[in-house]
Amino acid sequence: MFNVIRKMPAPNSLLAQKKYDSDDVHSALQECFHEKCYLCETKKPLDINIEHFDPHMGNVNKKFSWHNLYLVCSRCNNIKLTKYTNLLDCCSISVWDRVKLTPGFSPKSKEFIITPQYFDNKTLETAQLLNDIYNNDNTINKRLTARSLRAKVVETTHKLTQYMIIYYDDDSTDEEKENAFNKIKIMIKKSYPYSAFCRWIIKDDEELDKLLTPLMD
């Protein structure tokens, strides 16, 4: 997950309380959420939904509230449904640093390690949902899609570690090191796909943690 600043004012179409997924809502959410699913952080997913963070259950105010609408891929939306209702809100607080996301090394990693850093109910439930998203293998479809998602994350984190190797390599020129450092800075931006995984890798690095953590908004 990543931190989101919600664009204001709310899209005009919501005032009529007829549709919560009009074009202006989609456009505004795409901008706020950097075209990423707010849960798995996949950029420009093939199937995108507008989700009610707090299930509206027929409540009109919740259904059309701009503050209750989130950009999510269909897979994460299907996993969350109404099962998870006490989650950290990425639009209200810093969320990426409350649950540590540790990717596997292999592109075919069996599972990722999801570790809550706090033990309040919201953090624990959010960690449980993220574990479901990255590791759920209850059905053949979930097993295959989770495997595909993990492979995409590992592809990204391998790219990050390659830049880190160049940055630390004694054989790298100053220009190569500077270029690698700038690439790393891009990959920890919240607009980057799977940025939370990248940030946690940097947080585990003795030198880069000190240099880059101040940039992690």
Summary keywords:
mainly alpha, 8 helices, 8% strand, 217 residues, two-stranded antiparallel ribbon
The total count of strands amounts to 4
Main sheet attributes: strand count, strand direction, barrel closure: 2 strands, antiparallel
Radius of gyration: 18 Å
**Helical fraction:** 40-55%
Span of the ends, CA to CA: 12 Å
Element-by-element helix/strand order:
HEHEHEEHHHHH
What count of domains describes the coordinates? 2
In short:
With 217 residues, the chain is mainly α. 44% of the residues lie in helices and 8% in strands. The chain folds into two domains: 82 residues, no CATH class; 95 residues.
Describe this structure in words.
The structure is a single chain. The protein has 217 residues and is mostly helical. Helices cover 44% and strands 8% of the residues. It has eight helices and four strands, in the order H-E-H-E-H-E-E-H-H-H-H-H. The protein has helices spanning 23-32, 60-64, 74-80, 121-135, 140-168, 174-187, 195-203, 206-212, and strands spanning 48-52, 69-73, 99-102, 113-116. The longest helix is centred in the last third of the chain and has 29 residues, at 140-168. It starts with 22 loop residues before the first helix and ends in a 5-residue tail after the last helix. The model has no long low-confidence stretch (mean pLDDT 97).
